[in-house]
Design a protein that fits this description.
It is a single chain. With 121 residues, the chain is mainly alpha-helical. The chain has one domain (25-120). The protein contains four helices and no strands. The longest helix has 25 residues, at 49-73.
């Protein structure tokens, strides 16, 4: 069994979010953000693989941008060109996913009760 990571990878790779050790706050925070974005889009169960992939990529870029901004605030190395390129990429991903919240498909009370009755019978 592989060792879980405690920080995000320096370069994006698919599945990085699941590779994070859930005992650490960073992993819990990023997974909560993933769930929040998916819920805003109507729920992870309604998203295609490609949409979930874009959400994961967006979160990685969001974190990377925040790290760069922290470095800048502390007087560290900061490449404005890379930052702008990443910010534009993040904007493109989020624009592609959609910026408006989407409602989940929720059954009305009669449908819910009928489904429950079907489970019991």
């Amino acid at each position: 069994m592989g060792t879980k990571q405690t920080d995000i990878p320096k370069q994006y790779r698919p599945g990085w979010l699941e590779s994070l050790d859930g005992r650490y706050g960073l992993a819990r925070e990023l997974r909560a953000r993933f769930d929040e974005v998916c819920n805003d889009l109507g729920g992870a169960d309604r998203l295609s693989y490609m949409q979930r992939s874009l959400v994961e990529r967006g979160l990685w870029l969001e974190y990377w941008l925040a790290q760069q901004e922290q470095a800048l605030s502390k007087g560290g190395d900061f490449d404005v060109g890379k930052w702008v390129q990443a910010a534009n990429s993040l904007q493109g991903i989020y624009s592609r996913l959609g910026l408006e919240r989407r409602q989940r498909d929720v059954p009305d009370l009669a449908q819910y009760l009928a489904a429950k009755a079907g489970e019991a019978g």
